[in-house]
Design brief:
It contains eight helices and eleven strands. The chain is an alpha+beta fold. The radius of gyration is 20 Å and the shape is globular. The chain starts with a helix and ends in a 6-residue tail after the last strand. The structure holds zinc ion. Monomer.
Length: about 280
């Protein structure tokens, strides 16, 4: 599943291709993935003629801010297998497989939401409407712009396993299973510890590790596994630089101990029993 780094890359690469373009058509063959107070027909009509003014991101959600009445936004969550691609009208038929949503844009461009497994979501509406969707309304501060004060308070107040804590999108938005395992390895913290039991040094290490891992992954273009590619169909290379995720049974890069895999917070978790205390 694309996590914060992959969604950040998606946003950065989409921006120069779609900003200031006008929406001229809308198509979807998967209405169940559309969350809006409008019917499909009305949604399509309401979108037409609006310009894409700005892009923003919170956690794993990308927002397209549109012009016109009510300043509505489109929000995309790529979930398991979704990806956003920019296509030219001319190469559209070649790449048409698994396209769930298609926004025809001025200048003969198409913004396509490709999603083989159909778990992805598109929301549409004004801020007032979007606030009615609990996932969006509860979304915590973005993990990349997290303040130390907020983070320390949340650690003290939640009293849950640290792995579960990192994955909770309402506490901090954007961390998924890859980033969580990498962050805990980087901070030398055992994923089974309770969030409120961390020492002040561990809290500080964890805070720094979140920023470090996210920035490193973004710099390497994110992790391209199975389905996920950039909007221009490039691939990331963070998967070649993982220290913990996907490395069960291999040697820890720090101490040489064989990394262990366990189910923690309901997710496969890889960690070093020797150096993650
Ligand atoms: Zn180790």
């Amino acid at each position: 599943m694309p996590e914060l780094p992959e969604v950040e890359i998606t946003m950065r690469k989409l921006a120069p291709k779609i900003l200031r373009r006008k929406i001229i058509s809308f198509y979807s063959d998967w209405p169940r993935g559309l969350h809006s107070h409008y019917s499909l027909d009305k949604l399509s009509k309401d979108l037409r003629g609006r310009k894409i003014l700005r892009l923003s991101r919170i956690g794993k959600v990308i927002f397209l801010h549109l012009s016109g009445q009510n300043s509505p936004r489109i929000a995309f969550h790529q979930r398991m297998s979704g990806r956003l691609l920019i296509l030219d009208d001319s190469d559209f038929t070649v790449n048409a497989k698994h396209i769930r949503i298609k926004l025809g844009l001025s200048g003969s461009k198409i913004l396509a939401f490709v999603d083989p497994r159909k778990f992805g979501i598109m929301w549409y509406g004004s801020s007032e409407h979007l606030d009615k969707y609990s996932y969006l309304q509860k979304l915590g501060p973005d993990a990349l712009s997290l303040s130390k004060k907020y983070f320390y308070n949340a650690l003290n107040n939640k009293r849950i396993g640290i792995k579960a804590f990192l994955l909770r999108q309402d506490i901090l938005a954007g961390v998924g299973n890859i980033v969580a395992d990498e962050v805990l390895w980087e901070a030398k913290i055992n994923p089974q510890l309770k969030s409120n039991s961390l020492s002040i040094n561990q809290k500080n290490s964890l805070f720094l590790a979140i920023k470090k891992v996210l920035k490193r992954s973004i710099a390497l273009g994110g992790s391209s596994m199975r389905d996920w590619v950039h909007p221009d169909q490039d691939r990331g290379s963070y998967q070649d630089n993982w220290r913990a995720y996907g490395r069960a049974g291999k040697k820890c890069f720090r101490c040489g101990t064989i990394l262990k895999r366990a189910i923690i917070a309901g997710r496969g978790t890889v960690f070093c029993v020797h150096c993650q205390k």
